[in-house]
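Good morning,

Both structures are done.
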Amino acid sequence: MDQFAGRRNIIVIMILVVAFFLIVRLFYVQVIDSTYKLSAENNSRRIETIYAARGLIYDRNGELLVYNQPAYDLMIAPFELKSFDSTALCELLNIDLMRLRSGIARVKIPRYRREPFIKQLSPETYARLQEKLYKFPGFYVRSRTLRKYTREMASHLLGYVGEVDEKTIESNPYYIMGDYIGISGIEGYYEKFLRGEKGQEVLLVDVHGRVKGPYQGGRFDKDARVGMSFYCTIDSKLQAYCEKLMKNYKGSIVAIEPSTGEILSLVSSPSYDPSLLVGRQRSVNYARLEQDSLEPLFNRALMANYPPGSTFKPVHALIALEEKLINTGTTFSCNRGFYARGVSVGCHEHESPLSLLAGIQNSCNAYFCNVFRRIIEDPKFQSTTEAYNNWRSYVLSFGFGNKLNSDFTNELKGFVAPASYYDRYYGENGWNALTVISLAIGQGELLFTPLQMSNLTACLANRGYYFIPHVVKKIEGVETIDKRFTSRHVVNIDTANFNIVAEGMYLAVNGGKGSTAGIARLNNIAVCGKTGTAENPHGEDHSVFIAFAPRENPEIAISVYVEHGKWGASYAAPIASLVIEKYLTDTVAPNRRWIENRMLNGNLLHAK
């Protein structure tokens, strides 16, 4: 027996094991691992992303609102960096050497990833740099487009575009670092239509990174697809006029076409120039706007929760009529307010007693406290909670207490307290109509957005139904808009009852003595409206007004909130009437120019 046989076998096994691992490693490197392949390919080719121009945005009449302008990013590819004249590059870019060095050192990224070095070069800087770019290996220019606006308006409605963040990249593989995305408004909600589709150009480069031409004759190139043109529902002339009226006030205007739910104008004031959030100064401007005490970035039309005040009284009239708790002949007395069992709600001086129509016309608090009390104390229900839930179901059917599901990303739902809310404070069966009597006049726990109030007005105009408010009218290449915007939402209240309330709202504007909204009366146009005062615990009350016109076949429904405006007739009603008149007649009658001048020259921006 060979005394070395055991050792020889061990050596053979070791050689076989090493050979096996070498073969596995070679297979992994050549077949599975693409690192060396990528290294070789990146030495011979460069993949350039071609960014699509975003879709244009037009108003309902085809007027261009948003278009594109060229912009250029200076990109850096760390794996292609070689020695270059740093002083010459700094002179071209108008930066100092320290910024150049810190910028290069800051690029801590995977080896084959290219990143922006300086974004949005000016056309002049780009022109100087382009002809000398070959002297700076590792740097190249990528073209893209930025948004440009034809008017300084509709910033909250249009929204803005910004860079994607890591969270977006993780959730959507379409985007990579450096891409832009719609963040708010139309730009955000309709991003997938507006963004288009990115393309790519694969270029053949030499060992110095210089472009020699298309890779394989452009076989792997892909054209970018321009974003779809978007036609929104707003009337740009009306939008501009609304913003002009509100320039010296905090608040909002929301105008809707009742027959379609299309938003004719959406204003949140104070506002800002949308071009401030475009270009290299975007982050600086955003920080400045965010710190502004007037909160111009805050979209009051969608995100401010206000009590509706007396503008909510028509809803109580409708519920009580439907439940047959009152009729047009039902009268209640008012002695400067409502008084019952130690509970009191004040009211202004007017004739008494009043019928339903006169109650709406005079906006009598006592009348609607009695109406609300009948609703909550309806004997057909076993308890206050059951009657309250019935009342609440009616209120929710108008679109309150929930998001309307419009095409805005930051819409709030408002608040209509469930019965359990009062149970927590007063105990189960420990509260009644008088406990929550402030709800009768649109105060207490009721909180609605201006968009919801405008939607209520559209429902009143349509005599019992509404379409979800929306801002999309047409998208290029898309046959129809979302079906939810063309579906009726019907309130379970008889049309005849809506006609009664419409008559009361007509009298509130056109009824003469006792009419709280006479300031909104127009020549030859039957306006139906309702004033309101929304209590403000932090200062002067807010001025509120809702209206639709004409009375028959209404073409516009509107809500106006003016913060710290006190009475509905002081600011909100005059502004709403001017908007209605401008939209329906394209002018303001000479005998009403004084109202327009008073609104334009007023100023409550710093009121408390």
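Second structure follows.
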Amino acid sequence: MTEYSELISRSVGISAKQVDATIQLLEQKATIPFIARYRKERTGGLDEVQIARISEEHERMLELAARKETIMRTIEEQGKMTDALQQRITNCWDATELEDIYLPYKPHRKTRADVAREKGLEPLALQLLQQKPGKLTATEEELQGARDIIAETIAQDERSRQAIRREFTYTAMLTTKPVKEKQDSEQAQHYKDYFSVNEPLKHISSHRLLAIRRAENEGFIRVDISADTEKSLDKLARLYLRATNDASYQVELAMEDGYKRLLKPAIETEFAADSKQKADTEAIRVFADNLRQLLLDAPLGQKRVLALDPGFRTGCKVVVLSAQGDLLQHTVIFLRMAQSAQTLLQLITKYQIEAIAIGNGTATRETEEFVRSVLKDLTDNKPQVFVVSESGASVYSASQIAREEFPEEDVTVRGAVSIGRRLMDPLAELVKIDPKSIGVGQYQHDVDQKRLKDSLNQTVELVVNQVGVDVNTASKYLLTYISGLGPTLAQNIVTYRSENGPFANRQALLKVPKMGTKTFEQAAGFLRVTGSDNPLDNSAVHPERYRLVERMAKDVGCTVTELMQREDLRQQIDLQRYLSDEVGMPTLQDIMRELDKPSRDPRTQAEEFHFADNVRTIDDVKVGMELNGIITNIAAFGAFVDIGVHKDGLIHISQFVNRRISSPSEVVSLHQKVRVKVLDIDRQRQRIQLTMRLDH
């Protein structure tokens, strides 16, 4: 059992045995996707989310252990370490409690209390704290110094800090007021809903808190977090006031000063940071969930695609892509020119186009209408038409990756290529774009950037490995996210492939420079090799279990290929016969599912979609209309829907179903096609309120 297993077990609600096994695998450099997919017996079937939580808690424990070492070393250097204090620090695994223990010993700038101690007033302060009856003979200056020492002592006392924390937990109110010299500015009007907030901190939603903090950071409002002062002072009085005399009066004055000047600001800072961290966690969770859905968006597959990046003034950039996503030709057309229809028709015919992708930016509806009018002249092999999200396409087009892929083309061509490829395989294209630029989150610039980056990168890694990739066609950008690989090995695979031709089987991967046996173990199950002489190479069955599958085939008198093709043969297999110390029922069931549908893609297939023909701008929208829409973004408070008018409408969380839900993601997913009704329109603020409760 590792040192932290029991602690993490209590924190995450997973047995210590499972936690211990997971930590051991992580310390052996096993990746989260590999552990979740191929080490179920070791972990007791933990999924990616649970394993990631254990990993995060383990990292937190390691950081806390390092902090404890620093604290003990600092106290020892001061010559103030005692056996009891060392024992307390050693046994403490709560970060807040640890800092409370350390606070009296923590190096700091000279305080009023330090000045008073230098004047020799500490004995007077200790005398006052005893609150014995009798007349005080000290001068007011001496009493003030003693009060400064008492105020700091109370503010640093663990008991007082815990008492005030409890009061803040129950009664803390967040209040705001506008910065007068800025409140009438045009930019400040974006935040006018937050000019006079007065709400319990514990009830403020994460997205609202992040918006308030943004307004504060931009200098438009001031924010205060305060508990009930009377109740807070009453709690401190019960801790420190033991009499009613001159000395206790001095202690009471010091206590009130210590609370207002030292303790209250410190606890306010704690609660501000803690509430911000919780809001970040929720925002990052929503962002990661949206990103996961977007990456799992339905692919069209390998089709010959014509992609258009719509535009009026500069025209529509048109690109033709092969079924493999290679750029074959590009041009520009203008919707109002007669020649454009002929140009488009010639391209469709010449390249036998199977699908048309239109970016969902400015002039999308007009471009779609134009394309469909052109297609009316086609009788056979009419291509499907899709409107594709172009969020992040402009970021990609100006990136180093785009310059590497298309060094001779300008940004408009690269952007159109990205739109077309995104229709063919959203996952393969989106991994080239910084997840923060894809536009599927709220307040991404306001949350902890490192936590956001780590979460989004982990999300991409989990999705890529869930889907798996063809090692002979995948780009280095996609391969980078495969379990165990990273940028260097991904590039080595692509280089080896270009120099030696396609990989014939999974074993050939071991010839790639720097591909060791441990890395091969981590990556192999997620890499597919189509056309291999071993059919298992195009499945999620790990090479370490090939012999087991071969034994199954032999036991029913057939080849592995026949076993994968014939359900009647698979039904003859008694899984109990293949149980061992290393292979349990979870792995055996995974193998059978994979033999049934090898290399299955968990994503659905792309489908055509049409907006209402008579609704093109917000002026066409009327209350009570029922419209087709596509979910473009999901937040904690609702979901945004593209209804084809260049301005997304909002379905509030209360407008999904006739029951209370905790998150819109319980009902809808990103890019889902939905039917909505218009509830309200604010044309001045360009806001459309929608509902999915069509009987509303």
